[in-house]
From TrEMBL:
InterPro entries linked: Bact_Cytoskel_RodZ, Lambda_DNA-bd_dom_sf
Protein name (record): DUF4115 domain-containing protein
Organism, as annotated: Treponema brennaborense (strain DSM 12168 / CIP 105900 / DD5/3)
Superkingdom, taxonomy of origin: Bacteria
Keywords, alphabetical: Membrane, Transmembrane, Transmembrane helix
Transmembrane segments: 98-116
One Pfam family matching this protein: HTH_25
Source taxonomy: Bacteria, Pseudomonadati, Spirochaetota, Spirochaetia, Spirochaetales
Coiled coil, from the record: none
Keyword Nucleus: no
Signal peptide range in chain numbering: none
UniProt GO molecular function: DNA binding
């Protein structure tokens, strides 16, 4: 049978391209390139990534990607076990009465199970009501250098330490959106939103609140949050290095401007994963971090100057940029699209700074 892996390897060697060059040009890790050429299908986290990598690598080598994908699918079908329904079996005569008896037994078991589950479900609902009622008693949480990760309920109080005396934030609502009553007024936070809050309305924001879970219909279930003191050593972000910000001409022509200002400052990227994805990022030219994410995962990245992102499936992740109190949602890419892009500050000729999304070829 024709081998898609052999096509890839032969074409690469024919063009005298080594694995390091192919990795750099395609942004596909070397281990995945070798797995494609050796047809090691189990090396990939999922079929979507294998097909995406195969398509991009084939096009990079100048091969017909559709033909190679069809070879891969043919190989997959060939290696699949024969369905049991196609195997001819001799059925003994005594099987039929046994089957009828077993079916009757199963029906009785199903009826019994439904009855038992109904009774247990009523008991569980009663227990759940009791648990939720217990959570209604207000709790007090004093914030410290350690981030607070808790499920908050209506009436709970967050205590924010201050040189002028402790300030209190009361949870006013936990349905659809988190409502926090502060000395400066009411704050509303939506699901997956990260918000900086000025508690006293005087000296800038004191805390950062991230809402990771909340019910749209049941306030008794509370809200799962992460709360961080901004003046904590854990949360201080290095100032933006103005000298290292590239000019517009250095940044290239292909770019999407998401924010403009007279100054550059740190920003946050919230990454919400809608599907499986191999994801790598590098913040402010520091060490690269790579991991495998699945649907429902959330990653928060804080940067001073910029972030470089490598994404194996651009449709699997949704980005939200938070800077200077503003929130910008980026468009979701195509399924199976492997991309590399920078999100960073650039300086224009008029002296203004622009936060831009710049694709890397």
């Amino acid at each position: 049978m024709d081998s898609f892996g052999k096509h890839l390897k032969d074409e690469r060697e024919k063009k005298s391209i080594d694995l390091e060059t192919a990795e750099r040009d395609t942004s596909i890790s070397r281990r995945y390139i070798e797995a494609l050429e050796n047809e090691q299908l189990d090396a990939f986290p999922g079929e979507a990534y294998l097909v995406g990598f195969l398509k991009n690598y084939a096009e990079y080598l100048g091969l017909e990607s559709a033909h190679l994908i069809s070879l891969y699918r043919a190989k997959k079908i060939q290696e699949s076990p024969v369905p049991e329904g196609l195997l001819k079996k001799q059925i003994p005569r005594f099987v039929k009465p046994l089957t009828i008896g077993a079916a009757a037994f199963v029906m009785i078991a199903i009826i019994t199970t439904v009855y038992v589950c109904t009774v247990k479900s009523r008991n569980r609902n009663a227990q759940l009501s009791t648990v939720l009622a217990n959570t209604s008693s207000a709790e007090r949480y004093v914030l410290s250098a350690q981030p607070l990760q808790k499920r908050l309920y209506k009436g709970d109080v967050l205590v924010v330490p201050s040189d002028d005396g402790d300030m209190e934030i009361t949870v006013a609502g936990t349905q659809s959106e988190l409502q926090l009553s502060t000395p400066a007024g009411m704050q509303m936070i939506e699901l997956s939103e990260e918000r900086e809050i000025d508690v006293d309305g005087m000296n800038g924001s004191e805390i950062i609140v991230y809402l990771s879970d909340i019910s749209r219909t049941d306030a008794l279930r509370g809200a799962e949050v992460r709360v961080i003191l901004k003046n904590s050593p854990r949360t201080r972000t290095a100032g933006t290095d103005i000298a290292s910000i590239p000019s517009v001409s250095e940044a290239g022509a292909k770019r999407q401007i998401v924010l403009e200002d007279t100054r550059a400052y740190p920003f946050t990227i919230n990454s919400s994963f809608r599907g499986s994805c191999v994801f790598r990022y590098q913040t402010d030219n520091r060490e690269e971090i790579e991991d495998y994410f699945t649907s429902g995962d959330i990653l928060t990245i804080q940067a001073s100057n910029g972030v470089r992102l490598w994404i194996s499936n651009n449709n699997a992740v949704k980005f939200q940029i938070i800077a200077d109190g503003k929130t910008i949602n980026l468009e979701v890419g195509r399924a199976g699209q492997v991309i590399v892009q920078d999100i960073k500050w650039i300086k224009d000729t008029d002296g203004t700074y622009k936060l831009a999304v710049i694709p890397i070829d």
